[in-house]
Known about the structure:
Blueprint: H1 2-23, H2 35-52, E1 56-58, E2 64-68, E3 71-77, H3 90-96, E4 114-121, E5 127-136, E6 139-145, H4 146-149, H5 152-159
Parallel strand pairs: 3-4
Antiparallel strand pairs: 1-2, 2-3, 4-5, 5-6
Amino acid sequence: MKDALQQLFLAFHEAVMLFNAEIGLTNPLDRTRGMEASYFNSKLMQCLRAYFDTNLKRGKYGRMFLYKNGYIVLFKKLGKDGKPMNIRTKLTDSIENQLEGKLFNSDEDGSSPIIFFGYTKSRMGELIHPRLVYIDEGTVKWTIDESQITPENEVNMFTSVAPSSGHPVVKPHLKIKKKAK
Length: 181
């Protein structure tokens, strides 16, 4: 399973790079609501397919999931509480309670545990902190962070990419408080 987990994180970082390169072609003023989330999910599925091919499936309602080693992995942006950002419905509640119900087609095994592979979005709009999250009874039971799976030198390979020419470079600026005399 460790290999599969490493591949999830590699696919995530590849998708982020593709997404960043391609989303920049569309002016932010011209992007419709939900475009970025939908586009990133498409890039993520494209990269995951390179690693998992036939294990990547489409369930009911067009939801993409990965079925690997007896687990069902769903992909979502995560909120501050580490839970998927969803509009509350009976279906999302049943997923968070491991009662998947009508999520899958009749020929799929809907009794496997559901794990979320998620990420958060920074204030600057960066897609960061990919992790696996297991939710049951509406609460996060455990998470697996990238640093627990991938050696640190491989993580740094993606996080310390030098900007290409033509893009502004943001340098950190520290303000030092002056003591009142």
